Amino acid sequence: MTDLRTPLDPVSAAIADGGIVAILRAPTSAGFAAVADVLVAAGITALEVTLTSHGALEAISGLRRQLPDSVLVGAGTVLTEDDAKASVDAGASFLVAPVSGLGPQPVPFYPGTFSPTEVYAAHRSGAPLIKLFPAGGLGPAYLKDLRGPLPDVRIMPTGGIGLEDISKWLVAGAVAVGVGGPLVGDAAVGGSLTALATRARHAVDAVAFARS
């Protein structure tokens, strides 16, 4: 079991320090390289490539070569042990799932949870960060209430989180947030990279505001 007094592994600590995991999800991963450059230039240092995107494993390997070592590249929607192994082999620094169920992994694994029982079970299993998913319909007040009886859990809300919600979730007790569509928008499929840069700066500023 981990709690807020237990030091985090370096990967999870870096995610908590940055406050944002940018989720890259699109029909194809062809646009992820350009999107990643914009996000990193804005100050986002953790990227999650979802395995539902065609070419995701190749994208993870490519991003790992493309980006500085200070930028974390992980795999999302990791549902099976085969998914996990392939992702780690491709260079993923962390694994994220919408559900629980995977066994021990060679890199940090962040399981998906929804109810207090699931959150506590993931906490008991030793997950360094626990994904709350889908979080958008629950709202920051749910997290604040959840952390009343479970103050030692490190929770990363994901799913349906708008840019305007980032600071609210962090103030409510999230260690980081996972943000996909509201941040990346259509940039991975030919949309404006200039608009993406603006959204990314807003996201980074929201983290700084919440922690000021």
UniProtKB/TrEMBL annotation:
Q: Which Gene3D superfamilies match?
A: Aldolase class I (3.20.20.70)
Q: Which organism is it from?
A: Actinoplanes derwentensis
State whether it acts alone or in a complex, and with which partners, per the record: Homotrimer.
Kindly tell me the pathway this chain contributes to. Carbohydrate acid metabolism
InterPro entries, per this entry?
Answer: Aldlse_KDPG_KHG, Aldolase_TIM, KDPG/KHG_AS_2
- Name of the protein: 2-dehydro-3-deoxyphosphogluconate aldolase / (4S)-4-hydroxy-2-oxoglutarate aldolase
GO MF annotation list: lyase activity
- Provide the taxonomic classification: Bacteria, Bacillati, Actinomycetota, Actinomycetes, Micromonosporales
Keywords recorded for this protein, A-Z: Carbohydrate metabolism, Lyase
